[in-house]
Amino acid sequence: MAKIHKPRSGSLAFYPRKRAKKETPTFKNVNGKDAEEVKPLNFYGYKVGMTHVIASDMHKKSPTYGQKVAMPVTIIETPPLVVVGIRAYGKASEGLRVLTDVLSEDLPKELARRIKTLSKRSAKGKGKKESKESAKKEEEKGAEGEGVEKIKELIEKGEVYEIRLLAGMQPKLTTIGKKRPELVEIHLSGSIEKQFEYAKEKLGKELSVKEAFEEKDFLDVKGVTKGKGFQGVIKRFGVKMHRPKAKERRVVGSIGPWHPATVMWTVPRPGQAGYHTRTEYNKKLLKISDDTSVNPKGGWKNYGLIKNEYIIVEGSVPGPSKRCVAFRKSARPAPLEHHKIEEVEIIATKQ
Predict the structure, then answer these.
(1) Whole-structure pTM over 0.85, yes or no?
(2) Rg (Cα) of the chain, in Å, rounded?
């Protein structure tokens, strides 16, 4: 038998291995912008946990064709997003730049936990008479109208490259106990004019996951992985341990030569493990539902009860329970027919 030879061990795919800048994932680019129909191209939810489903395998070349198979799946609760604003982007020397934002006059009070200027505004208006409050509302309506007109003028001048929705999540509708909502951007398909009309119509209203995706779509899921703290090279990079007689077992044999006296960046070193931003591609969306019979007795472990719409995604998803995850239309070509799973019949709820 040949001797196992690994001159270096551990993946160099993700560098630097440091903590994520923020826990709410975002997509810089999405697929499907060229479509004529205007619809959201990404969405957000909270990871509930993993289970398995019994479904029919409809891949004709599979040995289990036409039979019931068990599949590991992840459940993500997707409470409706509230569209709180419209953001117009223009071209910059490198990438895009924000031209202007328009916020709705009816903002959720929980959003003040995320945007501090809103709490200052609400505190400033306390104690005034009703007439002044109503006048202020009229002013805000006027400000919203002016902002919409400004975006319209920029579109006519050809300065707007893209319109996105500013949306707030609603953790208050879930059982995770979170109070501060995430503020996210939703990409849109279609021409600039159609994007603008859709954004005006949706301003101040709710956005459902069914408006963005359909069952059997393939998604890219992005999230922040479980944090594991400061770890050594064995756990962090999967380096092989030394023999029992060695002075130290859980170390790298050599971190570099004497001459030149340097440590290469490719040498495994101890440091942060986990809490990294990761994207997983081509996860099949098996089911979109709001049937609460999926809840086990006592709720899902480390999560609680599902009270809103949820999606069932094939395979695993980055991050622990309760963490916010983002998903979009798949950017890579869809997998071959071996992913042809139909008719999800049974969802395992025993914890």
Answers:
(1) yes
(2) 25
